[in-house]
Write a structure and sequence with these properties.
CATH class of the largest domain: Alpha Beta
Number of domains: 2
CATH topology of the largest domain: Rossmann fold
Helix content: 40-55%
Radius of gyration: 19 Å
Strand order of the largest sheet: 4-3-2-1-5-6-7
Number of helices: 10
Order of helices and strands: HHHEHEHEEHEHEHEHH
CATH architecture of the largest domain: 3-Layer(aba) Sandwich
Distance between the termini: 26 Å
């Protein structure tokens, strides 16, 4: 049972429903705190880890699903825990690949009214009631982001990571977009519009790598860390505390 699910036992739901809006908002803070505390305690041992994102709507027979499973398996066998959103589609493929590999498969599940159900390939499962608490954990424990084809949720995670790294609010980690044809239009727009109109610096494009093959994904992550190791430096740990 998640911390989010435990909180209503501490606070009487009926009493809370009758409380003022300000009181209800105040009690919400305890739910959020509980999510952060429990998730941090459970995930502290999974490093190094790679977060993989992608569409929840991708069927098992889709080439993206198969490619994701291959990438996750190679990452797992190379010593990386694999973190996904814990749901179906690409998330399931990521967990499945890691589950049959050598390293832990981690699912950061979210409570939603539709679409999300937890997949069966999780060695470590953590359920969240708040998207923003879950998003912090994706970044906090990741040595790299692998972004597969996906929709709004996938783009949200991608932009979150790019923003945090660009602004120095988290350490610089590889952000790898897999399957270049899918991402080509977005990358072109970044270059021709965002860079040309001064919305981002040309150097910001260096935060992103476009890769197509599973082995290349693993190699790119190892290359990024070959001169420094996976453990955050003292300065980076301090930054992570302020996420």
């Amino acid at each position: 049972m998640s911390a989010y699910e435990k909180i209503p036992k501490i606070v009487d739901p009926e009493l809370l429903a009758k409380s003022s809006d300000s009181a209800r908002e105040s009690w919400r803070v305890f739910e959020i705190m509980a999510e952060f505390v429990e998730a941090t305690e459970r995930l502290n041992t999974i490093r190094p880890a790679v977060s993989i994102f992608g569409s929840a709507r991708t069927p098992k027979t889709d080439p993206y699903y198969i490619l994701t499973e291959q990438i996750a398996r190679q990452l797992s066998d190379s010593g990386f825990s694999v973190i996904s959103g814990g749901g179906p589609g690409i998330m399931e493929a990521a967990n499945k690949g890691a589950y049959y590999g050598k390293s832990p498969s981690v699912g950061l599940n979210i409570q939603l009214p539709h679409e999300q159900h937890n997949n069966a390939y999780q060695d470590i499962s953590q359920t969240f009631g708040h998207f923003f608490a879950r998003k912090v954990m994706f970044v906090k424990f990741a040595s790299a982001y692998v972004v597969m084809p996906g929709g709004f949720g996938t783009l949200d995670e991608l932009m979150e990571a790019l923003t945090l790294i660009q602004t120095g609010k988290t350490r610089k980690i590889p952000i790898i977009l897999v399957h270049e044809p899918f991402w080509a239009g977005l990358i072109d727009w970044f270059k021709t519009t965002l860079v040309n109109e001064g919305m981002i610096n040309a150097g910001d494009m260096g935060l992103i790598k476009l890769i197509n093959e599973p082995k290349e994904v693993v190699d790119a992550i190892f290359k990024h860390y070959e001169t420094r190791g996976f453990e955050p430096s003292a300065e980076e740990r301090e930054i992570q505390l302020n996420l």
